[in-house]
């Protein structure tokens, strides 16, 4: 996608992460409340900007997005906008088993009608090779660990962390350190210090096959709420086979120093240990 976008002549091109695109659509719909045919208005606005719309990581999990995309895709294509998108999922499998999926099928039909579907799988999982050769729990928190995390990000995501988009997860903003190729860089503070719910972790585990979690502190007796959220996060990532890379203040078995969650955290530590194994890393992500 990088090569295609930068090789495309002219200025009438627009590249967005798919979820950033949908966030913009929702914001414009809110501003257009009461207007007739708001999706047509939004499509007109995109047409004033671009002839080619590039999506990174076309992936649908939200029912509201699914309901909108049929009409929106038709409106964009009707205005002669060309769509170029990357996805780990073929069109017919998008939003499979989602609520009211029948209302999303027009979006699939529009994509198949107006786009050429190309499988560019090279047969070599470079992400797996990188992960199996790397330490996935990096400590202590210092410049060298940060350099290692940045190096892993570059290898796994395929691009430097030049942008840190804000995601909308369950209608709330979530600050990131980077988003690229279904890989997320994010801080412990964002995911476990802020008031996050199990539903947030479920959404993230469906959206991203790999997460780099930065700056995990030693969890003291004053951080039981943070530890509880961390356990919930690990549980959801484990269930959906998310690959997890962590920078932490202490080794794995020294990271929790609290009292209330000793039993629960032992299970969490066991899962974290398994998540570093070659067998786990070979498991296919389950969005």
Verbal overview:
- By secondary structure, the chain is an alpha/beta fold.
- It folds into two domains: 2-114, Rossmann fold; 126-281, Rossmann fold, CATH 3.40.50.
- The chain is 45% helix and 16% strand.
- The chain is built from twelve helices and ten strands.
- The chain has helices spanning 2-7, 18-31, 38-49, 63-78, 105-114, 126-132, 143-157, 188-193, 198-207, 224-239, 262-274, 278-281, and strands spanning 13-17, 52-56, 82-85, 137-138, 166-169, 172-175, 178-180, 183-187, 210-216, 243-248.
- The strands form three sheets. A five-stranded mixed sheet has the order 4-10-9-8-7. A three-stranded parallel sheet has the order 1-2-3.
- α3 packs across α4 (63-78), α6 runs antiparallel to α7 and α10 (224-239) runs parallel beside α11 (262-274).
- The longest helix is centred in the first third of the chain and has 16 residues, at 63-78.
- It starts with a helix and ends in a 6-residue tail after the last helix.
- The mean pLDDT is 89.
- GO terms for molecular function: ATP binding; ATP hydrolysis activity.
- One of its GO terms (biological process) is cell division.
What's this model, at a glance?
The chain has 287 residues and is an alpha/beta fold.
What descriptors fit this protein?
five-stranded mixed beta sheet; alpha/beta; 287 residues; Rossmann fold; three-stranded parallel beta sheet; 45% helix; 12 helices; 2 domains
């Amino acid at each position: 996608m990088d090569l295609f976008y930068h090789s495309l002549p002219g200025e009438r091109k627009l590249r967005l992460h798919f979820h950033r695109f949908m966030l913009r659509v929702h914001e414009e719909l809110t501003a257009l409340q009461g207007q007739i045919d708001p999706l047509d208005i939004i499509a007109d606005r995109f047409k004033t900007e671009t002839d080619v719309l590039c999506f990174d990581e076309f992936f649908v999990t939200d029912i509201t997005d699914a309901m909108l995309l049929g009409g929106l895709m038709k409106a964009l294509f009707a205005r002669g906008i060309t769509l170029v998108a990357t996805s780990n999922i073929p069109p017919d499998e998008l939003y499979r088993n989602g609520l009211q999926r029948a209302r999303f099928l027009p979006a699939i039909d529009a994509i198949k009608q107006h786009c050429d579907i190309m499988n560019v799988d090279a047969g070599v999982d470079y992400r797996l090779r990188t992960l199996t050769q790397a330490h996935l729990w990096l400590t202590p928190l210092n410049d060298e660990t940060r350099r290692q995390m940045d190096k892993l990000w570059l290898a796994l995501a395929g691009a430097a962390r030049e942008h840190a988009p804000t995601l909308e997860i369950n209608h709330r903003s979530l600050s990131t350190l980077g988003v690229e190729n279904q890989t997320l860089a994010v801080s412990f503070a964002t995911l476990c210090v802020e008031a996050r719910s199990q539903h947030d972790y479920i959404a993230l585990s469906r959206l991203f096959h790999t997460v780099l979690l930065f700056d995990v502190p030693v969890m003291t007796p004053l951080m039981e709420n943070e530890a509880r959220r961390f356990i919930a996060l690990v549980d959801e990532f484990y269930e959906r086979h998310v690959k997890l890379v962590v920078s932490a203040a202490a080794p794995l078995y020294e990271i929790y120093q609290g009292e209330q969650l000793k039993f629960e955290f032992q299970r969490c530590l066991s899962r974290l240990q398994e998540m570093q194994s070659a067998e786990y890393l070979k498991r296919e992500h389950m969005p």
